[in-house]
Amino acid sequence: MNFFVVDSSAEVRKIVRDVIIEDNLGIVTEEAEDGCEVYADQLPKKRIKILVIDQTFPNRSGIDTVREIAPYFNGKIVMLSEGSEEEITQAYSLGVEYCIRKPIIKTELSFILQKLIKQITLENMLEGFSNSLDLFHFEKKKKLVTPSPYTRNSIVQIGKTVLMELGIIGESGNKDLLDILYVLYTSEKNGRCGTPSLKTIYEDVIRTRFSSREAELTDELLKKEIKSCEQRIRRVLHQALNHVASMGLTDYTNPKFENLATCFFDYDQVRKRMLEIEGKQNSNQSYQQINIRKFVLAVYLTAKQKRNEALNQKTW
């Protein structure tokens, strides 16, 4: 059984992980520190069956996260709570199976997780039985994950190779970058002139995501989602900078390093990060003035160029 544990406290995540391991309930395949790091379309890909998530986060609360993923996630959700009865009631109304009060009592957590595992096992048996008899062929699954339109678009497929070169294909925030590629490419095809501001790009991405959902995108929710998106992009950008700087330390003459260092960053920042990794300069100085817009547009333009090259090769 695959678990995803989301809590800002490393100690709490360890408690949950220990209970799962010690009682042989399954494995914790994913962990996160904030609700904004939970993607609805990534849960089925990683085969998450039980999501254990805290109620309070600085960026996107557990309630808001559950509200977003509930229509698409067919697993079970356990919420860790220190909130009021009203907030707990709201959590249950959104599809949360159990709310566990903090501080966590290990025996209570174990009992609830075992109960959910039995429930999931029974549901799987019934589904398998139904499929074998072909009795419910006409019935749609209750919660169907809608395929993302972005994964079928060639600019996004090629964009994944760019993120792979930057060493961030598996990092939190790479989906935001891929969504940005799709939005920029689509708007350009529709006749947009010039490059929009970073804020406009974030807003277009969030509006595109919510266009296929039943949830209403209020101004407050839009601002919150933009902030979460921006923080994930900033985090993944730092990971890319680390990757490129490490590449330079390994082989300074590598033409791939030179291209990545100058195309996606200001070279001086890459050089500063290299010195930080070597311990010759105070850490985090290279992060202070990174041009996020340059990085985002560089990813897009590089993916676009690679796409055009691929199309030209097909033509010949």
What summary fits the major beta sheet? 5 strands, parallel
Going by helix content, strand content and strand pairing, the class is alpha/beta
- H/E series: EHEHEHEHEHHHHHHHH
Number of strands: 5
Please tally the helical runs, counting DSSP H or I stretches of 4 or more residues: 12
Please state the average pLDDT score: 83
Bulk shape: globular
Overall helicity:
55-70%
Report the span from N to C terminus: 49 Å
Q: Main sheet: which strands, in order across?
A: 2-1-3-4-5
Low-confidence stretches: 140-153
Instruction: Note the beta-strand portion.
Output: 5-15%
- Please state the CA-atom Rg, rounded to the nearest Å: 22 Å
How would you characterize the overall build of this protein?
This protein has 316 residues and is α/β, with parallel strands linked by helices. It is 57% helix and 8% strand. The protein contains 12 helices and 5 strands. It has helices at 10-22, 42-45, 62-69, 85-93, 106-133, 154-165, 174-189, 198-210, 219-250, 255-263, 267-277, 292-315, and strands at 2-6, 27-32, 50-54, 76-81, 98-101. The protein has a 5-stranded parallel β-sheet with strand order 2-1-3-4-5, sandwiched between helices. It is globular, with a radius of gyration of 22 Å.
Task: Give the topology.
Blueprint (H helix, E strand, L loop, with lengths): L1 E5 L3 H13 L4 E6 L9 H4 L4 E5 L7 H8 L6 E6 L3 H9 L4 E4 L4 H28 L20 H12 L8 H16 L8 H13 L8 H32 L4 H9 L3 H11 L14 H24 L1
Parallel strand pairs: 1-2, 1-3, 3-4, 4-5
